[in-house]
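Why this split exists: single-chain examples teach little about how molecules sit against one another. For that reason, every record in the complexes split bundles all components of an assembly together and asks for one structure covering all of them. Below is a record exactly as it appears in the raw files.
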Amino acid sequence: MVNMKKCNYVISAVAAVLGVAIWALSAGLGIGFKEEGGISAGTWPAITGGIMVGAALILLVMTLVNRKKYEEMEVVLGLPANRRVYLVMGIMVVYCLLLNVLGLYISGLILIPALMWVLGERNKKKTAIVTVVALAAIYVIFSLILGTKLPEPFFM
Amino acid sequence: MLNNIAAAIASAASPMTLLLLIVGTGAGILIGAMPGLSVNMGIALLYPLTFAFDGVQGIIMLLGVYCGAIYGGSISAILLNTPGTPASAATTLDGYPMANKMGQPGRALGLSTMGSMFGGVFSAICLMIFAPQLAKVALTFSKAEYFALALFGISIITSVSSGSVLKGLMGGALGLFIGTIGIDAMTGKMRFTFDSTYLIGGISFIPVLIGVFAFSQVLSSVESCYDEKYEKKDVKIDRVFPPFSDLKRVMVTLFRSSLIGTFIGCIPGTGGDISSFICYDQAKKWSKYKENFGNGEPEGIVAPESGNNAVSGGAMIPMLTLGIPGDGATAILLGALMVQGIAPGPLLFTNQPMQVYTIFLGLLLANIVMGCFGFSLIRVFSRVVNVPKEILIPVIFMMTFVGTYSYNHSMTDVYVMVFFGILGYFMNKTQFSMSAIILGIILGGTAEQNFSGALMMSKGSFSIFFTRPICLIFLLISVLSLMSPLYGQTVKKIWKNRKENRKG
């Protein structure tokens, strides 16, 4: 089981690393104030990196001090409902790749039924109607009325 | 000035603008009525649509979405006891009992429509009266004051981060960092671009916005609807327009709640949810029918509804005049205005007066259209609560892709959106605030440029920030706002003890 204490440790570590990295990269751009006034290109990002590191350290200390409180706070990440979310995330990543190759409409013909199936819809007729109506609506609103360019398949 | 007002009326009343307003308001009501879809999500989803239109026309459409979604939340609050948006949570207290225990859903929906329209129109009129006056004062501001204002805007991160202020700060810092990616406007240097042509222009605001407010929220809906049994709710709605006796009973509450809501909206970091509960509480305190609250009291419906819709105009006052967003939704609107070439702040009133008056009129009309929709089409809108999640979720996912791609015709934007959507899901789980990230992105650039500009003005002396009274006041407020989590609890305790002592 994941609790907020563990999450806070991870968040503190990630934020600290990110903050230090921002600071290090900012140093290359120049940190400080110009003689004629104004700030160097790296100053503002370095401040954001500093805030990140500062907040990470305070969060770490606060978590250590209030260990019990955070241990009792559960972060739900491993239930079947979460696993369904991870599956949807996977579908989305695959869809991004398909979108590039097959375009919006053809890949949409795969995405919508896939999502409906994952969400528990087993009625094929209903799935087909929703898919066709949704894609037709997008076509009419975006492509026909608004003239928006949407991803096209590689063969077009 | 009269010329500008006449031009604004012509612009706001043009058939295309009215059509967009109607479409936006209708879409907003539908989005608000569906539990799980927030106001912010509605604006984020429909935002890319606005690029197809002239700047102000698109913004007016978003204003329609904004007002419609706040109102739409009351439909599911009344019919299902599930607020469509957090701003309608207080409406469930009396709306649901009136619709179910008393068997008067039409009356409850009519009262909520009346309350929402009244609150919205009242706040739009306040916006028209007070915003130009505030802008006149703000015209004397220099870069130092603008920096202080931007810092104040960023400092409301502590208020919007209800889960954890520290994580709100981290999110804000992340947003500030994202805002620095690309070419530095002051020095012309490339920052964090890693030789990527995409990053030279910086990470676009739209994909991040759609990712954290829409994509991540739909992922949360995928989780929350697991094992949820679909139940169709058949509601018979009779008369919707409130009878005269109800109007007479709620009139004072309408005015009081609209005033409170507008005032709360002006305070950055608050929002419709806070306003609706305060208005409900005040209505109960002042009511002759205190004992009826919680059992379907008409005042208990109009108070939160007029209060949360009045926030819309109130929040626009600091947003348009000072460039400080009042809540998450106005932060998105601020970004939308900037993308459309409309720069909120005191100069907006002198440089683009026609656009300002069009926005004023747009907000007023949006509330009127919202009321007309509510009274005439409530039977249609109330059916939306029956749309199953298996249909809704895939369609919204498709919309996030369409919206993101249509902004820049870039697949990289799509990848960025999905990345921030997935990140946003986990950040939501661990008490991060999405509004904090957006505030950082939007206000970071303004803060940095004005900070640097102010130092150039003073030839590197920091005294410029402490010798200008308005700048100093805003800096002090920013510090107080940022430190509020440290002393907030203590102040609350002292206040509570005093109250108890007085009672004792």
